[in-house]
Design goal:
single chain, alpha/beta, eight-stranded mixed beta sheet, 18 helices
Length: 583
């Protein structure tokens, strides 16, 4: 407990930890004198919960959360840390299950008194100070969050069924009226703003003058008492074109090849760090069309990659999408589409991302030694190079996306080392940068550079856990999973410029890329091109949603929205989830 508190840098967690340990010990001893079996079982259970909470605090910098439990499916990407975490958890479980030793008979029967006193002090401290660092109170918060998430998902699933019925009725009515299902709006209307409210969402007649914000949204009340989100149909989000305000550079061919590089958990603050940890990324940002004050719109990877391709949100990690992705648009335009997975041992992941419209996913084991489940960043970039060189021999343009994983929490194996740094955490970001730099040097010297653009970004921000805090102690965030992330577009000859996104987020990646390449197609994108002027009012483009909590990044000022939301945009997001996911 002390080690976890020191590592997290919190005196509060040590204070609350001692109080709750006193309650467990005193109550357990009292029960053990009169009801041995009951005393042992209850003490073991509470010690187990207590130990696991502090294991979480030691490594993640916070007590257990729903988001942590939700991402246990990705434990394989923790690398060497998987065994370290496993060993510590095993010790914690073993310690909790050890036999109890009692005080001499009759001497500790009044143990409930010190337990009651400690509990009273803790309750008072929670009211006066904070309950954030109380393992017991945070367990209650975890349970409440899980229940609310379940209720919300159930409501959205019901809304999705209503939306499907509404869509079916609309199609039938349209067919009966004129023999065809004309559910489109003219692209010129979108460009003129006649059907666009600034958030990029079409307003239909049945939504009323107040628009999507009239949908019910939580304001902190119990999930069971919260009104179900108002149902909507896909037509409410449909757009017949992608509004654009940027003409494609004359130096680019009509359909250039696109290489999309998505780096795991990379915050812009790491790129900008004064130690120059990532010099190549920093250099290419300055040589590119670069977007500053640009944030991730969700967390973690299973939400982030589809979210950027669909310009939308999803409720849970493996939710499927029934809408139109950037990949679909490019494939319909004649592009061959391919996703490169860095995890040959995780077919579920590559299959899931391939389901976002890719014709093919590469996750072949190749030359990875036995016992390893994924590529190093050097191996991933080597595979990317070999792949795009082969694709360049084909007649059609290609869209190839790769996700590099070695900067993930817990991964520390690298091929290069930052200066004389002894920090494995710093080294892995430096190594990622070096591998990117080597790939770009080969790209610049090849014929690919004549007709290919490089798009570089991250799936989401670096998560604030113990190692991050230790290596970037001056970085403070209100929300652990949201931060500025890199996003730039490069090709030899591009005119460098930096455009402020003003706190907008990765919902805008797909429409921005389409705008840059003069591509328009029907879609259900929530975002819009970053080349447009910053909206006067906050929109979903400044809302980060991880399936449970909302964070606002309007104009680069971050704040967590109390109770889930404090404005009309949450209702819109819930309505979108109802028509986007397949539950």
């Amino acid at each position: 407990m002390l080690a976890a508190s020191l590592r997290a840098g919190s005196a509060y967690s040590a204070f609350f930890g001692f109080l709750e340990l006193a309650v467990i010990f005193c109550t357990g001893q009292t029960l053990y004198e009169t009801r041995r079996r009951t005393g042992y079982v209850l003490t073991t259970l509470f010690c187990l919960i207590y130990n696991l909470q502090y294991v979480s605090l030691m490594f993640a910098g916070s007590f257990l959360s729903r988001l942590m439990l939700e991402n246990t499916a990705s434990l394989s990407v923790l690398g060497d840390r998987f065994f370290l975490y496993g060993a510590v958890i095993l010790i914690a479980v073993t310690g909790a299950c050890l036999p109890m030793a009692s005080w001499p008979e009759g001497r500790f029967h009044p143990g409930l008194r010190p337990a009651a006193l400690a509990l009273t002090v803790e309750l008072a401290a929670c009211l006066i100070l904070t309950s954030r660092y109380s393992p017991v109170f945070q367990l209650g918060v975890l349970g409440h969050d899980c229940y609310q998430h379940y209720e919300l998902r159930r409501q959205i699933a019901r809304q999705g069924g209503e939306a499907a019925a509404a869509d079916g009725n609309a199609l039938a009515d349209a067919a009966a009226f004129d023999g065809e299902t004309a559910l489109t709006v003219e692209a010129s209307e979108l460009r003129d703003g006649a059907s666009d409210d600034g958030s990029g969402i079409r307003r239909s007649e049945d939504m009323g003058a107040s628009g999507p914000g009239t949908a019910a949204s939580p304001t902190g009340e119990s999930a069971a008492d919260r009104p179900a989100p108002t149902a909507s149909s896909r037509e409410d989000f449909y757009r017949s074109g992608i509004p654009g305000c940027r003409d494609k550079d004359d130096a680019l061919p009509e359909d250039p090849n696109i290489i999309l590089i998505v780096t795991e958990g990379l915050s812009q603050s790491i790129v900008e760090d004064e130690r120059n940890i990532m010099p190549y990324v920093r250099r290419y940002e300055a040589m590119s069309v670069n977007f500053s004050s640009y944030y991730n719109h969700t967390f973690a990877t299973y939400r982030a990659l589809p979210g950027q391709l669909y310009s939308g949100y999803q409720m849970d990690n493996l939710d499927s999408h029934g809408l139109i992705s950037l990949t679909d648009i490019l494939r319909d335009r004649g592009y061959s589409t391919l996703f490169i997975s860095p995890e040959p041992g995780n077919a579920e992941f590559s299959d899931y991302i391939a389901g976002c419209g890719f014709e093919e996913a590469i996750n072949a084991r190749g030359n990875i030694p036995a016992g390893r489940a994924d590529y190093s960043d050097g191996e991933a970039y080597e595979l990317l190079w070999d792949t795009v060189c082969a694709q360049a021999e084909e007649d059609s343009p290609f869209f190839t996306m790769i996700y590099t994983v070695n900067t993930h929490v817990g991964k520390n194996k690298t091929e290069t080392r930052y200066s004389d740094s002894s920090s494995a955490y710093i080294n892995k970001f430096y190594d990622c940068d070096q591998q990117f730099g080597e790939f770009m040097a080969r790209f610049e010297a090849s014929s690919l550079a004549k007709d290919t653009i490089i798009v570089f970004t991250a799936d989401h921000a670096a998560y604030v856990e113990a190692e991050f805090s230790a290596n970037f102690p001056e970085t403070e965030r209100i929300c652990r999973s949201v931060d500025r992330i890199p996003f730039f577009i490069y090709y030899p000859g591009v005119t460098p410029e930096t455009i402020s996104a003003g706190g907008r987020n990765s919902l805008d990646m797909a429409p921005t890329l389409c705008d840059y390449l003069d591509i328009s197609a029907e879609n259900y994108f929530l975002g819009r091109s970053l080349f447009f002027d910053y909206p006067r009012n906050p929109s979903v483009e400044t809302m980060s949603f991880d399936g449970g909590k909302f964070c606002e990044t309007d104009r680069g000022v971050m704040r967590v929205l109390a109770g889930g939301s404090d404005d009309e945009r949450t209702g819109l997001i819930y309505r979108y989830l109802g028509i986007a996911g397949r539950y």
